[in-house]
Amino acid sequence: MPQKTKKKTTPLTWAVWIAAGVCLCLIITLAVLLLRGTASPAIQATDPTDPPATEAPTEEPTEPGFVYPQLNLPENPYTETDFDYEDRFLTCTAGPCLLGVDVSYWQYDIAWPLVKASGIDFAMIRLAWRGSTEGGMEEDSYARINYQGAKDAGLKVGGYFFSQAITPEEAVEEAEFVLKMAEEMEFDMPIVFDWEQTGGRTADMDPRTLTDCAKAFCQTIEEGGLEAMIYFNVYYACYGMYLEELTDYQFWLAMYNSKMDFPYQIDMWQHTDHGSVPGIEGPAYLNIYFLPQ
């Protein structure tokens, strides 16, 4: 019977096979990279930006013609003309105040003696945070470093919890987390409930629930012997929570402007997220804390 002839492998055939192999390797590599980029929240870094810090939502109703809602709150005793720059920092020229920064892991290593020498009086330190996806709580990895550095440099120190609480019970957990840390610390400034909408588990938060969370956190903090404060921006002051129910606690407003036109009394004003402070690399969050007149 006739024998089968063996097919010859030509240079063109080898080129096709090599090209196919290269393409397959590229496809596998790309697939691995995509899988890494879409890993579950438990695998990805979930440390929130400060900022976030104290990092407040950006939708602030401060366009020309905006009218603040009528709230049953004490009036702001300061006007736009009561603020000006002295040396390098914005300050209140119409009453006693302290100048401060708020910091977290995202500022990394800080030269606190230089911060103090520049004219800064206090530091608000992120103590811990709750994740926006799975809701776990973690201590800020620089909290104790920043606390000790600021204390050693002679600054007054307060702290804040970056909250993603969606129930009052979770807000109590966050306050208890802070109080546990406070057993090894001594604070001169308030402890702050810093709730910010980041999406994920907080996407559907309503004003009633957020107000109740703020109350629960602050009440627990003050029952633990510390002074409580609530952080918010203009949007949340007007529409996101019921400030009229929270006047037992201090208010910290984030409004990035060199002039104060907020109509209601606040205790601290975060006026920029792009300040420059010796000892802190990159943009710094700057604050004015109003002392009783």
Poorly predicted runs of 5 or more residues: 1-9, 27-59
| N→C terminal distance | 114 Å
Quick one: overall form? Answer: globular
Tally the structural domains.
2
Secondary structural class: alpha/beta
Order of helices and strands: HEEEHEEHEHEHEHEEE
Question: What CATH architecture label of the largest domain applies?
Answer: Alpha-Beta Barrel
Model description:
It is a single chain. This protein is an alpha/beta fold and 293 residues long. The protein has two domains: 12-44; 80-290, TIM Barrel, CATH 3.20.20.80. It is built from six helices and eleven strands. The chain has helices spanning 11-37, 112-117, 143-153, 168-182, 207-223, 234-240, and strands spanning 83-86, 89-92, 97-103, 122-130, 137-139, 156-163, 191-195, 228-233, 250-254, 268-275, 284-290. The strands form two sheets. The chain has an eight-stranded mixed beta barrel, surrounded by four helices. It has a two-stranded antiparallel ribbon with strand order 1-2. α4 runs parallel beside α5. Mean pLDDT is 85; it is low at 1-9 and 27-59.
Comma- or semicolon-separated keywords:
single chain; 293 residues; alpha/beta; TIM Barrel; 8-stranded mixed beta barrel; two-stranded antiparallel ribbon; 6 helices; 11 strands; 28% helix; globular; disordered N terminus
